[in-house]
Structures are given as C-alpha cells and as structure tokens.
User: Fold these one by one.
Assistant:
Number 1:
Amino acid sequence: MTVYSLFSFLLALAVTLWSSPVSASSDYHEQLFLQPLPQSSLLASFNFRGNTSQQSFDNQHFQYFPRALGQILQHAHTKELHLRFSTGRWDAESWGPRPWNGSKEGGTGVELWAWIDAADDEEAFAKWITLTQSLSGLFCASLNFVDSTRTTRPVVSFEPTGDHPKVDGLHLLHGTLPGEVVCTENLTPFLKLLPCKGKAGISTLFDGHKLFDAAWQSMSVDMRPICPSDGDCIVQIEQTVDMVLDIERSKRPRSNPIPRPVPNEQLLCDTSKPYNSHDTCYPLEKASGNAWSLQEVFGRTLNGVCPLADSDEQQSVCLRVPHERQVFHSEGAVEQKKADGFTRCFSLSSSQPFDLSIPEQAVQTEVALEEPVLHAERTIVGHGQERGGMRIIFGNPSKTTDVDFILFESLPWYLRPYIHTLQATITGPDGVPREVPASELVTGTFYRPAIDRERGTQLELALSVPAASTVTLTYDFEKAILRYNEYPPDANRGFNVAPAVIRILNAPDSAPIYIRSTSLLLPLPTPDFSMPYNVIILTSTVIALAFGTVFNILVRRVVSVDEAAALGAQSLKGRILGKLVAIRDRIKKKETKVE
Amino acid sequence: MTSKNGDHGSPQTSSTLKADPKPSAQRVPPPETPEAIQTRFRVIAAFWAVIIFLGFPIWWKTTSIYRAHLPIQEMADWADGKTCRPVFPLEIHVAAPTMQLPESQHLVRTTQHALDDLNEFAAHHLRLKLTNDTETSTAQGIDNTPITGSMMDDAPDTALTVRVVAQEGLATPRSELRADTTQLDIFYPPSQVPIPSSSNPPLSVFIAEELQRLYSEEKATIAYILSGGAAGRDSESISRRLRRSMKYADTYHLSFSLFTPGSAPSSWDIEAAVQEYLSPLLHAFGPISNFTIDTQVQLYATFSPMAPPPVYDETESAWTLKKEDLSAFINAAEWPLNPSIGNGPTLNFILYVPDPSQSPMVVKENRASSWIVPQWGGVFLLNPPLEQAGQSGSQTNPGHITQESLRPAFMTFSHQLLTLLGTPTTPASLPLRLQSLIRVRAATLLLSASSTMGSLARLTESLAAIPIPATVASSVSTTLAQLSSTCSHLREGRFGAALTSARIAETEAERSFFEKSMVGQVYFPDEHKVAVYLPLLGPIGVPLLVSLMKELKRLVAGWKARRRSTA
C-alpha cells in the first residue's frame, strides 16, 4: 500500500482536526472535497462540524448545536448518536475504498445507533423509543417504526467514538430501516440543523434534485462528547453528505433530462477488440476525462463562505486531480496546491460566488485509487416459499496480509436462520474451492436468537480471511408465515433485510474501517388478501349446507312422490301455480271469444 | 327436496285434505302421527334453546365492549355549576401599632362595614382581621410562599397586611403599597383616630376605598370568568387579556431565540442576561409554575416570501412594519421554532436583529419595537449600533451582543412573560399580583375541569359504541374529589391549596377525556358487522325462523281448536 490514498488523506485530515478541539472550543468548520472517479463519476464529500461546550449544552444554550436535536438528545439521555440516511450502492470495484473509511455511511435506508445512559436495559429501551419517535418527527423519516423487532444491541461491532466519563451506564442500541426511501424531505431538516442553513458556504450547493439523483449518497449526523485531558468537555455535532454523481447525467439540463445517444462520429471505439462488421462499437472511456464545472454538476454555484467557519480554515473547497490538469476558478478565490501532487484547495472570497471549471484535457498521471481491504457481497439463495439460504462472499485482495473482521447481521424475526448449517468454502490463490469447517475461520460468535414478533436475530461473527483468498459463508433459513395484518401494503414486493455491517479490525491506524453490504429483498409466502372474506363466505356456506341438511332431515316429513303432488296443491307454491293457470285459462277464453 | 316441500302446515293437512271437494285420483298421505309432530317440536325447541341459552350469551360476551360506570349526573352537575359556587374570601390582616386596642377594633369594624357597602360582587369579598404582631407577619410577607404556607396549617392565606401608622404633619390619610411585599401602609394624621362613637369615620372609608381599588381588577376578572365571559364592566379588556394568556400548565418552556437575516451577530451573552434579568422573576413564580429555559442562535433567518417586506419611512428615517403585517413576521415554515420536548407549553421569545440594510426597524404606527403573539410568545426588534466594516465602508451588525445591550430586550421579555402567563396588570406589588394570579388560575382551572367533566359525560352518553376503560372511571373520580376539595379550599380562603387541587383535577380531567382507547371503536361501523354475520346467519337463520313460525302457528291453531271444542 505505497500508493498515497485520498481516503487516508481525508482520514488524516479528520484525525488532526479532531485531535485539537481545545483550541476551538465552540467553533464551526465546514469543508467540501471533490474528486473525479472512474466512469465519469464525481465524488463530492461535504463535512460540517460544530462544537459547543458541555456546560452550555447541558444548560440548553445552543449556538452551533441545533436546538431541536439537542433537546431530543437530552430528553432521551443520549450521550452519543449516529444517524445515517443512504441510497444507492458504492461501487467498490470501480471507485475504490469508501470515503471516511466507511465510518460515515450507513446501510441502504436509515440506520441509527446510539449510546444511551440508563440504569438497566428496560429503561434504555424506553429512552431509545423516545429517541426514535422524536428523531422521526425531526427528520421526517419513519424512524418511529424502529421497534423492538428492529432493535439490536451489538456487542463487538461498534465502539463509542466519543470520550465518555462513565461507560458502564451506557447502553448501545442499533436500529435499521432498510426499506426507507431517503429523499428531499430528509434533506430539508438536515440543512436546517446547519448554522448557515444552506444560505452561505458550501451547503449552498445542495439541491435535492441532484443529491438524490446521485448513484450513491449518504447523509450522516454524528453527535459525541469529546473530553480532552486538559480542559472542559465539548459536545460535537458532525454532519456529512457524501455523494457520487454521474457527471454526464448531472450535466443534463432539467428542462431536457432525456439522455440522447452520442453521434456516431463522436463515438470512441475500443479498437483492441475484434469486430465483425463496421457498424458495431465497443465504447471506450475518454482518456481526457469529462469537462465539468460546479454550476453544471450541482445546478448552482457556491455562494460565498459561511462566516462562522473559523478564519484559519478558509480553504473550504479541495479538489483532487493531478496538478497538471487545468482548473479554472472564479475571481476572488485563491488556489493553493498541496505537495502530494494531486490535491489543491481554494480559499474563497466571502462575498463573491465561487465556481470551478475543469476542461477536457489529456493527462499523463492519474489519481491512483487504493484497493479496498476487503470485498464483500451478500445474497439470498435458494428457491421456494418455505426455505432459503444466505450466502456471503468475502474477498481479500491483498497478497500478503490476512484480514480480521466482524460480521454483524441483524435479521428480521420472520427469517429464521439455522446457525448449525453455517458452512464455509475457501478459494485460495490456486482457484480451487474447498470446504472447511466454519469454526476454522470463525474465531468468535455472538448469537442472540429471534423471538417471534418480539425481536430479530442478532449475529456477530469474528472472521478471518487469509491473504489472496475468497471465503464463502452460507447458512440456511426458514421463512415464517406472517399473520394477515402483519403484511405491508406492498407485500408482494418482498421484505427488506438490513445490510450486514462489516467492521475490519486490523486497520493500519486505530480508526476502524466499515463496509456495508447491500440490503436484501426476501420474498415471503404472501396470501391473497381477499382471503378473510373468502374464508368467511366459504365456511359460512359449508356450515349452512351441513346445518340445512341435518335440520331438514330432523324436521321435514318424508312422503312419496304422488302424495307430494297432492300436498303440493295445498302449499303456497301450489296455490300460486293454480292461480296462474286460472288466469291463463281466462285469457285463452277471451281470445277464443274474439275469434 | 322439492317433493318433500309439500308438508307445510302439517296439522292442518289432514283436515283440509278431507275438505277437498274434488274426488282426486291422487293419493293423500296419511295424517302425521302425534309422535312425529311431538318430535319435530322438540327438535326445533332444542335448536332454539341452544341459540338462546348458549349462542346468544357467547356472542354477547365476546362482542360487547367494556364500559365502566361513570357518575354521569354528578359530572353534569359540576359542568352546570350546580355542585359548587366558588367564593373567594380574602383574609386581610390589619395592624395598628399606634392605636389603642378598642380604637383599632372599632376601625376594623367600621372599615369592614364600609367594604361590605362598596362590594357589589358577592363571590369575592375581603375579610379584615386585627393582628398585633405586625412585625412578624410583614417579615414573613416576602418568602411566605402561598402554597407552602397553607399546606402546613388549615388557616386561610393572608392576602394582605394593612399597617395603619400615625404620622405627623399630614392633612389627609395617605397609602403606600410596598412593591416587593404584601403590605399596605396607611399613614394618617393623629387627629383622625376614629372615635368609637362615630359610625363612619373618614379613615375607615379611606382604607376601604384603597382596598377596593387594590382588588378591583382581580374582582372584575373573576367575575368575568365565573360568568362564563358574559359582558360586564371592562369585559372587553379582560377578555383580551385572558385570550392572550397561555393555558395554565405546571411547567412552561421558555425558548429565547436570536434571529438575524445575515451572519452577524452570531453570539450573545445570553447566560448572563437570563441570570441577571429573568431569574428573579422566575423565582417569584416558583409557587405557581416551573420554568425551563433554552436559547438558540439562528442565522440567515429570512422573512417568508409571502410576508410584506418592511418599508423605508423617510420621516421616521427607519424601516417600518405595518401593524397588520406583524402576524406574518415570523416565518414559521423556515425558522426552527419547534416546541420543546416534555410536558408543558413552550413560550417563544424572539430577539430579531434586522439586516444592516434594513436597520433600524420599528413598527410603523407607534414606533414600538416589540409585540406579543397571543398564546405563543413575544418578539423584540433589536437595532444595535452598526459598525463600519473594514475597507469597503459597508456597515455591519456587531458580531456579539453584550449583556448590557440585551437589557431592554429582557425587560420587555419579562413584561411579555407576565402578560402571557395571565398576571393582572394591577396592583403595583408583584407578590400581590402573583397571589391574584393564583386565585384567577384556580377559578379558571375549576371551571375548565368541570366543563371537561360535562363534555365527557355528554360524549359517553351520545356515543354508545365507545368503550370506557376503568382508568377513565378512576380519573373521573379523582377529578371529582379534587374538584370538591378545590371548592372547599376556596371557601375557606386557602387559595394555594385550592390551586394545587385544581391542577390535579385539570390533569386528570384531560387524561380521562383524551384516553386513547376510547376512540378506537368509533371507526368500526355496523355495516362491517352485517357483512361478516350475514353469510352465516342468512342460510341458517331463515330455515330456523320459518320452522319456528310454523310451529308457533300450529300451537296457536291447536290452542284455538281446543278452546272451540271446550266452548
């Protein structure tokens, strides 16, 4: 890993900024990081951080900390909070490792975990429910659906990132909503939490249309106390928005968003491939990269700086492209190139709008992307409505080092795993898969089985993948049959299963690396929902039929056929028939008279 | 089946068949044996017995809803004011250290007479009582909090201490109300000591008029509340004042927000300002309500696009807001003014620092810089002196607001807070105003809890399908008990204790009225029940009913035939 990495730069930046909180006890800081990624993508990573002293936080004097969130946290006795809103999938094969080492992203949908100060588990859960209900209102998200079945208490997967004076009273609770659709209604409250409210500084670039059109995006809110060894404790709120935009797609005007094919003469074809005829083309990515500007990609320009940001941190926009690439920027800003040969940062003028423009240009050097430490993929296998299986594939690309990590799965109760069927297959560098007992790879297990309708399965596995190998873990599960009223309105779509969280332990520095798999869709046996009424009608009919038969046999009198005819004349039916015959006869008589 | 359908009305068959005049070739079945008829009767009776004695009770048991017994009549009586007529006897201590005992007794007696003559509202009356230990009672006046004082003994609260002191060099009596205690000093020229023979001494008249004046606003307010808002003297101003004030609560959340459309000022000396300007007032309110305080700074808070922008007024050389546009001043959609978490309402106090380009900003009609938003909070426009910013020469707001410049704002906020909490505007003494507030609040709570009881009674009467859980019944009984204890506390002049009881009564009444499980069944219409029951009851019920009717017809016919044969 000799290649200098963007992400370790981000991390180093973050670490240095976090480690010096004493000098700026109630400051505010914001930064935007831009990097073009392969396949004409652009990573934009926004970071906002505000500090407030613990004392004014406790007394509810809010300046950089949003009042609404602060009050919720105090009311729910929450000491540390992490909230994530994510959509899309990070394409690790093309884009490399995740920004912030994955520590600022969540699984698809909404993910929330918090350390709550409480005397016992029950009290902690009650406060957790208060917290989710309140956050649900604040962020316009369905967080109030995080009930006991979606709440887990991870043991080894998460560590508090803040400094807590007393750890023994803290309870970690974790909840996910994999089916939640993150959209603009979540962005608006997110922006309201910022001191500059999207009116000044880098937050002016946020546009819900672009943000939620991204190939991958993740919004995060983190709150934690930081207590330096010397000085008073502070409470820090950090908000980040990371997104990968498709440059081509973002550049399309909103009035005319339909993609048009590239004209034939402008097509760049891969000539190294064999062609049968001249009318085909394997398109090739442009070597010169895409031309783009902030205005084109985000639909607006950056409007000055947020004046609250500390004055020595004026370089609020950084761009990572090779130095030889031309970058035009608007007047008033000052460009500063960093020594690593790839990063340049801009000091913005407080009054003028800022725009960046990168023309198309063929360059020799490329920003090298680091290989991710681990590849992970999780799928549901099997068929039928009764049983299925889970398959998780881990790939270790490194030639030399093993990877130790913790796999954390929280499964809904209606997916009942059979842990005894846990099997491992390892494919070494030779490419030959061989089955090994799972215990050979799993060094530790924490398993908390589900209780129907009360809690989900929680499974934490400590695993190790040898160098240059691929490990496939499989286990079987059974699908439960739900009650009629437990199905959602779109039951035939399937049920979301939360992504697995992978925490890599042997990271080079102490900061953990997190990877999240994609969320899964579990098809459950789904009834026809007119069923209850059909059942009512059918059983009623059957009972009525049986009852009628029995009742008639008991009550009715049995006579022979010719006797019945005699009796029939006396019945209501017989009398009506007789009348009808009489009327018919009279009409016939009249007709004969007329003739 | 159809062939067997023929034997309807079996008992008649034999007789009618015989009467058939047509000589038919058809064979008539033999008449049924009495055993068969008897068996059929038993079968049908057995079916109906199962239905009536087993099916119906089970159905009733499983589908009925639990309705706890409520004392409907008692609740309605409270709501109609039949149970309790609130009275407010105020005990006023009179101390006359410079007078002889018979003189002072006579003074008290004549003053009481004069007061009774002046008073036209019977529910609220002042009772004078002579005390000698003036010094101790006045010393208690400051921190003798009304509630704790009355909790300890059953004696009525002392509303006021009148201290009658002789002073040389006065032509007429003079009164002086101390602003920080509940003491009224009356100074009189020694020549005016009432002679025991005089029936209407001028000093008594003077004291009576003073006391009457002191309590006139409270009296009018209570009269207005008890009459249910009927027009009376000053009813317009009283109703306006009551409309502005918040509903009573145990805890109020005070939220102070600094809003500015630009980036400055971004900090303020709020902690010191709250400590200095507001804490004493909140401490004085301690016996009535608790308060929590939170503050926030919100930058880039722009006006709503719908709101009419301020207009520059040349003559005033200020930016002005029209009075009728003030309701649109607060941009509720964007300004984060969400209520605080926890029980109790939130009072919002907004300090708005206008943009330098729009400074100073005032209200057009009266150049005021603050106003009250009824039942919500208050707004103060702060126009700090502008600073020259650097080389460009443009003016900016200061980045920080000092405690001293917050002073006028917090004076206004204190005043707004008193108004929003419903404190009467007179008399000048704050403890007296707070005592008056206790009585007004007790009266309001008593009436509102009673009317909630009435509404609950009407609701449960009119909606027969809603369940009434046992918790509601227990809440109702607590409310009624607390209401009657409020009433008796009021009658005996223990207003602090009355307020405590009324608070409990109000909370319990609200809890019983807003019980969640009571609304559930309302949305389950009867059509659904028909849809569920009909497929089963139709095919089963019809044969059962028809057979029952036939059987009854046969019995009636048999009974008639028997009577005819006996007759």
Number 2:
Amino acid sequence: MENNNDQLPLWEVFIQKGGSPFKHEGSIHASDKNMALQNARDIYTRRGEGRLIWVVPSDSIAATTVEEEAEFFDPADDKIYRHPTFYKMPEGAKNI
Amino acid sequence: MTTKIELYNFVLRLADDNLILAQRLAEWCSCGPILEEDLAMTNISLDLLGQAEDFYEYASELNGEKSEDELAFLRSEREYYNHLLVEQPNGDFACTMLRQMLYSTYAKFLYEALLNSRDEKLVALATKGLKEVKYHFRHSSEWIIRFGKGTKESNERTKNALVELWRFTSDLFEMNETDKVLITSGISFSLRDIYPLWKAEISNVLEEAGLEIPNSENNIIGGINGIHTEYLGHLLSEMQFLQRAYPGAKW
C-alpha cells in the first residue's frame, strides 16, 4: 500500500475476546510493531474488549479484488450439492 | 491515630500529582500529533484522573470535612502538594513524553515501595495504580528511544526537553515532616531508597536512546511544601473555573 501522505504506515488489528477466534477490528497507523500494538490497545480495547491483540502490516495482507469477485465466488452459487441439506438422510442413519 | 494529619497530607500529595498531570495531558485532547497518539495521551490522562479520584476519596475520608471535589477543585495554589515536574507546560510532544517517562518511572518505584506500607488502603491503591503506571512507562520510554534514535530534529528536541525538565527531578525525592512521621510509623518509606532505582532506570532508557543525563543542576524544589512554579496558577485557573463560577456544578 502506498504511503503518500504524512501518516505512519497502516496496520490491521485483530483482537481476541475470551475464547473466540481473533476478529478483525479495524486499522491503525504506527511506525513499528510495539507502537502498533499499543495504538491498537488504546483504540480498540479501551472498554475491556480484549485479551490478545495481533497487528499485521496492511501491505502484508494478500486480498482479492472486487473485479475478481465473479470468477472467485460465482461458481459456488449453483453447487447446491455442496450443502449438507442437499442430501436425504438414508433410512436408519442417525447422522451423516 | 496520631499520624492522621500526616497521612492526609501524603495522600493529598499523591492525589495532586495525578490530577495535575492528568489535566496537563488532557490539554493534548484533539491536538495530538496523530489520532492514535491523541487517544493514547488522553487514555493516560484518564488513568491518572481515576487514580487521583481514588486518592482524593481517601483524603476526604481522612479529612472528614471536605468532599473529594472540594479537595480537587477548591484549594488555592499554595495548598497543592504536587511535584514541580507534573505542572510544567506540555511543550512539544518530546517534552510531554519525557515528562511522562520521568514521572511514570518515579510512580512505578513509589507504588512498588508502598506495597509494603502498613496502611492497607494505600497498599490497595498502589496495587491498582501500579499496573497503569507500568504501561505509561512502557509507552513513554519507547517514544524517548524512538526520538533519540530518530531524526536529527527529534533527537535535538528530546535533548532540549531533558535540559528543561531535568531541573525539576530532585524535587521528586524531597521529603518533609510528613515523610518523617510516616516513615517512623511504617506507612511510608524514605524516598532516598528509590532514587538510585529511578536514576538507573532513566539512565537505561536514555542510553538506549543514545542520550545522556544532563550535567546541569536539578535543585529546584518546593512542590510538596506548596511552593510552585509560575505555571501551576494558570493551570488551576482553567481547571477550577467551572467549580468556582458554578459552585457544586454536576456533569
């Protein structure tokens, strides 16, 4: 990601609450890892939301684009047999 | 209890340090160098305000007459016992962070020592405050290292701040009659004990930042006896305005 203003580099913030998986909360600016963790703590956990924090430089994240949406995701739309509800339970089976 | 008056003065000293520094940091609100740091400084300010509130509550209990709001907002300059360091103006961001680092290091060793106090309430408040001041130390000391190793300008600004603020550092370890009585009764301890710890910690941070403790004098004292620099009065006039203009005003 190009940093063409006077802001520090961008980081994505993931926070784990209780035993749940890490969840993306938003982004912050910071010049290094320690600053990124502290800024994330100050901005996203002020009301006791967090137990653990991950920060990742935004430009380290590989992401799909809106243009790629059709080829990435449309093929999944007409494959109803990929859903477990497509199958009838065989007689006598307790589960599949 | 014969030490009641001394304990009251001592608790007030702790409360005042926290309140005045909280007020100073709050001046950065909406003026921070970046949004993240704006929030970080006001977070620290709120931590300190919370600690001040707890100490004023205890002081009010010891005093038996004045409420915590009266203690916080309706005393005059000479009745405040905060240290000179915390009332110094914010200056630039380097100055604010250096002031924070010098104070948070002091508060860290002070609270650690108070964990051994014979006064249970003080032990409880020190335990609570310790977690916060450790974080404040971490945040501010990392900035000092970044400044020292950063650009020529950040290095110079930090050096200037050191010269400016170092003058008020021995004030942190001054003691008066209050301390004498509380040390004897096991409630407090000699601040001379934590001075070497404080200095060693400050030296570590400065060394990592490629900076040095200034050789200049640091013997401007008076805070704990109510003798202040010219900055406290101005700070109080802003902070106390509302309570003085609208007595008893509530949020």
